[in-house]
Recover the amino acids of this structure.
């Protein structure tokens, strides 16, 4: 019985994690690295989430970022940069604490925020900048 329950638990975890990845893809979040960053932010508004897999506040922010991407689709693109995989980009923008969020317009940084933000708080901050 324990083996059966363990198998069910593992299956559910795998299903749940694949669902999270699918929701991020459907939300339109793009993943940028040192090679793709400049091209990824060159036109329009782009909110970039600088994060790392080992960062608990970053993981807490991830579903908020997915929701923001969905809510602002057509107005603001949303991208994620793993600072461990894109150290040059993180250094270029002086990212010293994560999560760090930077809003770009046509390739230029407009505004930045550090730390976890609720969906409501982040929505207000973004709307203030894109008016």
């Amino acid at each position: 019985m324990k083996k059966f329950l363990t198998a069910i638990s593992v299956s559910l975890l795998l299903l749940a994690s694949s669902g999270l990845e699918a929701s991020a893809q459907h939300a339109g979040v793009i993943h940028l690295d040192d090679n793709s960053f400049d091209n990824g932010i060159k036109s329009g508004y782009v909110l970039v989430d600088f994060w790392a897999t080992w960062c608990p506040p970053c993981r807490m922010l991830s579903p908020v970022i997915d929701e923001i991407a969905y809510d602002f689709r057509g107005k603001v693109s949303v991208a994620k940069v793993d600072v461990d995989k894109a150290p040059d980009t993180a250094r270029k923008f002086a990212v010293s604490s994560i999560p760090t969020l930077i809003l770009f317009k046509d390739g230029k940084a407009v505004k930045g925020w550090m730390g976890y933000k609720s969906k409501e708080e982040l929505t207000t901050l973004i709307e203030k900048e894109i008016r």
Notes: The helical segments are 2-27, 37-40, 56-71, 87-92, 119-130.
